C-alpha cells in the first residue's frame, strides 16, 4: 500500500529511518514519529477493537486524550498494555500490537458483540447476573459469583505482564520559585517573564518537544525556543507530565526517562517520580478538542480536526484524501486550508448558518450542515449529512476521512485536583477555571483563550499575578477575555439518529453511546456522579477528556436543565496514568521496607538459622539439623530446652533506659501493677494499659539503681511504647523529673533457658558466684562480666517456664557472647532455638504475646487480674472496668486440647458449642503448637465465661477456611508446671 | 504535603512526624472518675478550620508539638513544644 507521507511537510528526521513491528509485521518510520504517526503513514487504519462491542477502532487524536489507539508495547517482562500510540515515541525495534481482539484487530471473532448491542447496554451485567425476577430473591449473589469470572475475562483491554518488572524507577525531589506546566505560547511567556524577574523557574512539558500546540504549525521552530529558554536559565523538563497538584504548592510529576529509547542504559531508571515544591504554580495545560456524537462516529478514519493538523505539519502525514470536516466553530478553517493545500479534497460542514470566514476558497464550506451517519465498518466509505435545520433531508458525501470539532474543553484538570470547581461559559460552550486563594494561576487556552497573542498576554499576566501574590511586586495586570474567535461557537453535541439503536459514541474507550446515557436516565440515574458510575462514562484511562461534555449535555437535555445545573464530575489525579513501578520507586524487593537485623544476625545464619520477619526484624525461626523440617526442628529445640539448655536471640525486644529521681513514680503510673517497692537489683513483669483500659503492652523493668531502670517491651510495640512514654512526660506529666532513652540498638540480648542454664552461664562468667540461687533469685538482676572482661547485665527471667536468664551485652560484643555461650551449651547437649520453639514453650506455659494481646483484650480477659493493683491509680485504671468491659460473658484466656489427642488444629479456629456451630461462636483459638512435653497439639485462646464455665463441656472447633472441624476441651492456660517450680529452681 | 516548623530542628516535611491527636484535652487525674475519663478519651469536636493538635517529631528530635492547623487548607499558624518548660526555653531563645 502507498505511504501517506508527504515530502515537504513535517519536522521528522528523514535521515534516520526506524524499523518497528506492528502486529508481527515489519514497518518503517522516522526519528521524531510517534507510533500513531508511523502507523498512519503506513496506512494502518485499524489499531484496536473497542471495549464492549469489539468494533474496529482507529486513531482519534494526536495526544494524551486518545481513546482509540490503546496498544500493547513490548513483550514478555516488558509488556506494557494500554499505551497511547499517540504519545509513544517511535524507536528502532519497537514492538507493538493491537488489543482486545482475537485473532487480530482486522478480523476479531468477538466482533459479533457488535450485533448483540442490546445485551451490552449500561447496567447489563448488574441486571442480568444479579438474578432475573422472580428467581432473584436470595440467589442473585450466587448467580453473579458464578458468572463473574467469565465476565472479568471478557472485560478489560490489554493484559499486564505477570513477570517481575526488570526496569528500575526512582523518586526525586526538587524546589523552585515557580513551576510552569505546559510549554505552549502562554507557558513559555510566563516562564520568560518570571526568569527575567529573577525567579527560579521549572518548565514542564509532557511532549518530547517544547511548543505545545505550535508543534502543529508548519513554520514553527521548536529548537529556537528551547535554546532561548535554556540560555535564560530555565530548567526544562520534557517527557514529563504534571499528573497532580497537592497541598502547599506541591506538584507530582512523572518523567519518562527511557520509554523512547530502544536499548536504554540499564543504569538509568525507566521513569522518575518527581515531587516538586514550588512557591507558585502556573498551569498552561492547553485545551482539548471535542468530538460530536452521531451514528457510527467511531469508524476508523474519524479524528479530531486538530489531530490531522499535527499529523500533517509535525509528522508529514496526510491522514485522508477526501476529507469531510464537521464543526460548530472557527478553529477548523486554518486546518482545512492547509489540508487542501497539501492535496486533500476538503469539505467543511459547519452547523452554523450565519457567519463569515476568510479562506482562500480552496475547499467547499457547507453552512448549516451536520454529520448524520458514517457508512462503512472497517473504513469510511461515505458520510450522510443533513441540514441542521431540516433533519429530513440527507445527502451522501464520498469521503475516506471525517474530522470532527465539537468545540474545545480547557484542561482544568490540575486545578480541579485542588477542589476548585470550574464554571460553565455559555459564550464559548466550555468549562472555564475559576480563581483560587492558593498560589495557582491558569493561563493560555486552559483559561479559554483561543488565539496566540491572548495566550502570550495571559502568560505574562500570570507571572505578574504570581509576583504579586509572592509579595515581590505590586503591579496591575489583566487577563484577556475568554474566547477569541470571530464568530461565536454554536453548541453541537449530538446529531440524533432516527433509526433505533444508534451507535453514537459519547465515550469511545468505554463504548458508552448516547442510548446508554438515555437508558441510565430512564432508570433514575439523574445525578451526574451516578450517571458516570452506571454507564462508566469517563471512567476509562482517558478519563473522558474528549467525551465528558457530550455526556453532560445529553443529561442536561434529558433533565430539561442547563449544563451548569447538571454540574461536572470532579477530576482527580492522575491526569494521565502513572505506572505502579514509578509510584514504588526503589521501594521494591528487599527495599520494600526497612530491614532490621540483630548484631548476631550473621552469627545466627552461620549457625544454620532459618529467619522469619517479626515486624521489621529478622529473627531466627528455627535451626534445622541436616534435613529437618520446621516441625521436626522446633520440636527438638523445645524438648532440648526442657531437658538441658537452649540459647535464643531476644535482641529484638524494645529496650528503654529510664532515668531520674521520679522514675519509680513514673513506672508506678504507667504499669498496672505496683513498682514502688521494687528493690534495686530486682526486675518485675509489668503490664501497661491504654487510657481506655485495654492492654497496650507487657514487658519487664529492671531496677539497676535508685533512679535508673532498664525496661524491655515486646518486639512489635517497642516504637509505640517509646512514643507513648515521651508523650506522657512531655504533655501530661511535665513536672516529673524523668528521662527516657531508647537503647534497643545498644544492647544485644539472649535468653539462656533450661535446667542446665545456670551451669552453662557459670562457665561463661568471671565470677560464677554471682548467679547462685541465693545471689540471683528469681527476678533478680545483676551487672557483672563475661569471661574476657565483657560487661553484661543478667536478669533471671523466664518466658519458657524453665530456669532461665536473660543476658545483655553491648551490641559490639554480641558475637563474642554467642561464641562463649554456645561453646559451653554444647557441652550439655544444648541447642540454639528460634522463634517457633520459643512459641511452643510459651504456649505450654500460657504466656501471652501479640497474638493474644490484640488491642481488644483487658487485663482480666488475659487472666492477669492479679496484675491490676488496687492500691494505686494508673493509666487505664479508671476505664478498665467500664461498660462492656465488666460483662460476665467476656472472652477469657484458656488453654485448648483436642478431645482426640491425635487431632490437630490451627490458630484462627472458631470455638462453638455443639449443635450451635455458626457465626462467631463462643470463642477463638489464637495460638497453637505441638507440645513436646505433653505429646499432642495444644492451643491458647479465648472463650466466653472462661475455664470455670466450660471445663467439663465438649466444644467444637470450626475452621471453615480450611474446611476442618474437631472436638475440643477447655483447660487451664497453664498447661505445664502451673506452680512454676522449674522457674524457681 | 504539610511542612511543620519544628522549634528545635526547623521546617521539615510531614513525613518526619507522626500525628498525635487533640491538643486541647485536659486529661483528668489518674484517680478521677470513669465519667471524667470517658469525656476526655471519647468525645471530640469535629472542627472545620483551625484546630490545635499534637504531632510527634518521631524521625527528628522526638519532641511532642502543639500544631495549630486548618483542617480545610492544611495551613499551619503556629508550632510550639507541648511541654511548657520547653516552650519557655524556645521563647527565651527567640
Please work out how many helical segments of chain A DSSP would assign.
22
Oligomeric state of the chains in view = heterodimer
Trace the largest sheet of chain B across and list its strands. Answer: 3-4-5-6
What's the pLDDT, averaged over the residues of chain B? Answer: 95
Name the poorly predicted regions of chain B. Answer: none
Q: Can you tag this structure with a few keywords?
A:
heterodimer, A: 985 residues, alpha+beta, Ubiquitin-like (UB roll), FAD/NAD(P)-binding domain, seven-stranded mixed sheet, six-stranded mixed sheet, B: 94 residues, Folate-binding fold, two-stranded antiparallel ribbon, 2 helices, 6 strands, 20% helix, globular
Structural write-up:
The complex is a heterodimer of chains A (985) and B (94). In chain A, 21% of the residues lie in helices and 27% in strands. Chain A is α+β, with helices and mostly antiparallel strands and 985 residues long. Chain A has 7 domains: 1-156, 2Fe-2S iron-sulphur cluster binding domain, sarcosine oxidase, alpha subunit, N-terminal domain (Ubiquitin-like (UB roll)); 171-288 and 408-472 and 568-584, FAD/NAD(P)-binding domain (3-Layer(bba) Sandwich); 291-406 and 485-503, FAD/NAD(P)-binding domain (3-Layer(bba) Sandwich); 511-559; 601-652 and 746-840, Gyrase A, domain 2; 654-742, Alpha-Beta Plaits (2-Layer Sandwich); 887-971, Elongation Factor Tu (Ef-tu), domain 3 (Beta Barrel). In chain A, the strands form 12 sheets. In chain A, strands 8, 9, 10, 11, 12, 13 and 26 form a 7-stranded mixed beta sheet that branches. Chain A has a 6-stranded mixed beta sheet with strand order 38-39-40-37-31-41. In chain A, strand 29 and strand 30 form a beta hairpin. Chain A is elongated. The mean pLDDT of chain A is 93. With 94 residues, chain B is α+β, with helices and mostly antiparallel strands. Helix content of chain B is 20%, strand content 35%. Chain B is built from 2 helices and 6 strands, in the order E-E-E-H-E-E-E-H. In chain B, the strands form 2 sheets. Chain B has a 4-stranded antiparallel beta sheet. A two-stranded antiparallel sheet of chain B has the order 1-2. The longest helix of chain B has 10 residues, at 84-93. The model of chain B has no long low-confidence stretch (mean pLDDT 95). At the A-B interface, helix 18 of A face helix 1 and helix 2 of B.
